[in-house]
Amino acid sequence: MQTEKKEILTTAVGRRKEAVAQVQLIRGTGEFIINNKSANVYLNNNYCSLLALKAPFNVLQNLEILTESNQIDTIVKVQGGGLIGQAEAIKLGVARALCQIELSGSETNGLIRKSFKDQGYLTIDARVKERRKYGLKKARKASQYHKR
Question: Residue 38 pLDDT > 80, yes or no?
Fold first, then answer.
C-alpha cells in the first residue's frame, strides 16, 4: 500500500451476524483489499464469497452506468464472525457505498438503488444465533426425558 492520500469517494458500513465491515471506495486501479490483503488471499479463494463481493459491481456493469468500475479501489476493514458472514457484510457495505455515489452524482435518478433493491443487495439479513436458555444444553436442545 502506498502512503499517499487518494480521493475517498464514499464510505459505508455493512453488518451480518457478528461481522461488521467498513467499506471505502476510492479512485484507483480496481483493487479489492480486505484488511490489507487482496480479496482472493483473505477469503482463501472461496469462489462463492468472491462472487458475492463482486455482485454489486456486476449489476452496475450490466446497467452500463459505471464505465469506470475498474478505476475504483475498494478498501475494507472487517472484524468479527466467520468468513461467510464477513463476505455478506462486505457485500452489503459495497452496495450501500455505491448507492451513496449515485446520490452524489444524481444523474441516474435512483436507477442503481432500484436495481440493488430488486436484486436484494440492500436487504439486511437480521438472523443471528439464538441465545442459550438456562436448564437447556443449547438454545432449544433439552436433556432426554426420563419417564421414571
Answer: yes
CA distances from 116 to 57, 69, 103, 133 (A): 10, 16, 14, 38
The pLDDT tens digits of the residues spanning 103-117 come to: 666 566 678 888 889
| Cα 101 → chain centroid | 16
Q: Is the pLDDT of residue 3 over 70?
A: no
Place of cell 464514499: 10
What residues does 12 pair with on adjacent strands? 23
The backbone region for 118, taken as left when phi is positive above 0, alpha when psi lies in -120 to 50, beta otherwise, is: alpha
Per-residue CA distances from 41 to 2, 103, 146 (Å)? 19, 32, 51
Count of other CB atoms within 10 angstroms of residue 129 = 8
The dihedral of CA 115, 119, 121, 127: what is its sign?
positive
Question: What type of residue sits at position 73?
Answer: D
List strands edge to edge, sheet with 72-79.
8-16, 19-27, 72-79, 32-34, 37-38
3-state secondary structure of 37: strand
